[in-house]
Amino acid sequence: MDRYITIVRDTLLKESTSGRFFTDDGAVQGYTLEPHAINWATEKKLRGHTAIPCGKYKISVYASPRQKEEVALLANVPHFTMVEIHVGNFPKDTQGCILVGSERTIHQSLGQVHIFWSRKKFTDLMIWIRKRLERKDDVWVIVS
Description:
Layout: E1 2-12, E2 17-23, E3 29-34, E4 55-64, E5 69-74, E6 83-86, H1 91-94, E7 98-101, E8 103-107, E9 112-116, H2 118-134, E10 138-143
Parallel strand pairs: 1-10, 6-7
Antiparallel strand pairs: 1-2, 2-3, 3-7, 4-5, 4-10, 5-6, 8-9
């Protein structure tokens, strides 16, 4: 069975992109933080400072050497390798990946969003992902 995490980007700023995420059963939901989302037709990717393209990506669990823990890893992301969902609060923490949290603050003047309670929300999401993968479900993230 296919299971989904949906990310709806709703705040695109100069230094960061934020949105809401939710699982298909509504069990886990919160906010996301990513780097700046570009127009892929007219702008060029800047390593570590560009959000992934919108799309549908299969998720696996991966022991991240950088994060020093298991994270969600997105497969086959165009223009990117090793895109993770992991813990962090500030745009500098994303490094091209997706961060999750329970609350957010939008700083228009800085062109940034900060998220909070990331560790708790990440833990909840990873429990949800692992349970579905243990049942042999395919887990996908849809970014829009």
